[in-house]
């Protein structure tokens, strides 16, 4: 009997249940995948707490890696026995399970250089990092970025990728221990926002100019400091709301702070085109497979421990990537 984590109401981590499920046979455009490892992402908490509304009851999780064990009649992109990984949004929701049916379209074949565990730890984070580094802004060597949550899963990948592009990386963290992690993975400077003024420190580090781009996954608590850290005509990239959603504001504020740009991108829109997804995945796999980018899996959980995993994630006790081992 397959197992899955499901929830019947939104709320705290305690709403999740670990239970038996029937999987069934794939429809014409589906595959059946036996999971080896499942990714834990902050976005999962948004489904669970209702930030991202979905019909209930439902499964949880949008990223996993495993082996194809059956295919529908119309499937041509993968075959039985293929090692695959996937991520997405609504179309892949329900990844916290041992085995499942999933649409074939999101599946990405894994090269031999990438393990299941690494894939589960980096497919969403890695593809997010890929579009942030390669699609959001035309970076040039010498440009600077402010990277919030620099010791997190996306943060560690972005900082390493940024150094490959010759960028100066200023990271923010909440503890001295996380500062050490961030520095070890490419950050040139680290700001501990627990006791430092982020914007003032950024201005100091950039001779008063500010950074070209801010990547802000924190949201409400860091929004003002992020805007104040940008140079004239800089770009604010809102990539998450870990501290809560950003309150409404008058766009005139962007003009007053230097004709700033602001975007709120979503991974789904950067992997919707199969060719673009393949290009981003190929570049990611090449960097990771060659060792130019290291994927740090610092937390391992059993699937039945999903409640504790979410508690740890929301308490900001984690660094790097976290995965469930099946």
TrEMBL record:
Domain Enoyl reductase (ER) intervals: 11-324
Signal peptide: none
GO cellular component: cytosol
EC number(s) per entry: 1.6.5.5
Keywords linked to the UniProt accession: NADP, Oxidoreductase
Domain of life: Bacteria
The protein's enzyme class: oxidoreductase
Known catalytic reactions: 2 a quinone + NADPH + H(+) = 2 a 1,4-benzosemiquinone + NADP(+)
GO molecular function, one term: zinc ion binding
CDD domains named among the record's database cross-references: QOR2 (cd05286)
Pfam family, one: ADH_N
Cited SMART domains: PKS_ER
Gene3D superfamilies found in the cross-reference section: Medium-chain alcohol dehydrogenases, catalytic domain, NAD(P)-binding Rossmann-like Domain
Similarity remark: Belongs to the zinc-containing alcohol dehydrogenase family. Quinone oxidoreductase subfamily.
Alphabetical list of NCBIfam families matching this protein: PRK10754.1
Name of this chain's protein: NADPH:quinone reductase
Organism: Marinobacterium nitratireducens
């Amino acid at each position: 009997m397959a197992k899955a984590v499901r929830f019947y109401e939104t709320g705290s981590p305690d709403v999740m249940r670990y239970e038996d499920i029937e999987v069934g046979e794939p429809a014409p455009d589906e595959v059946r995948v036996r999971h080896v490892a499942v990714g834990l992402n902050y976005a999962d908490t948004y489904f669970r707490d209702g930030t991202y509304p979905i019909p209930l009851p439902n499964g949880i999780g949008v990223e996993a890696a495993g082996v194809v064990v059956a295919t529908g009649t119309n499937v041509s992109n993968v075959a039985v026995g293929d090692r695959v990984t996937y991520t997405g949004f609504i179309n892949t929701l329900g990844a916290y399970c041992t085995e499942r049916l999933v649409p074939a379209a999101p599946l990405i074949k894994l090269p031999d250089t990438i393990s299941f565990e690494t894939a589960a730890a980096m497919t969403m984070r890695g593809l997010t990092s890929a579009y942030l580094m390669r699609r959001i802004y035309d970076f040039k060597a010498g440009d600077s970025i402010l990277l919030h949550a620099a010791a997190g899963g996306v943060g560690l990948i972005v900082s390493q990728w940024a150094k490959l592009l010759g960028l100066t990386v200023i990271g923010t963290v909440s503890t001295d221990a996380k500062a050490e992690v961030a520095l070890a993975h490419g950050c040139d400077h680290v700001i501990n926002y627990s006791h430092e003024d982020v914007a003032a420190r950024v201005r100091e580090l950039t001779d008063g100019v500010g950074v070209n781009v801010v990547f802000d996954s924190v949201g409400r608590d860091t929004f003002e400091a992020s805007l104040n850290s940008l140079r004239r005509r800089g770009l604010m990239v809102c990539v998450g709301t870990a501290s809560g959603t950003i309150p409404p504001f008058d766009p005139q504020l962007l003009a007053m702070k230097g004709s700033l740009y602001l975007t709120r991108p979503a991974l789904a829109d950067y992997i919707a085109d199969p060719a673009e997804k393949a290009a981003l995945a190929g570049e990611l796999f090449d960097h990771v497979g060659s060792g130019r980018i290291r994927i740090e899996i610092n937390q391992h959980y059993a699937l039945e421990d999903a409640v504790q995993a979410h508690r740890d994630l929301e308490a900001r006790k984690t660094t790097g990537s976290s995965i469930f081992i099946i």
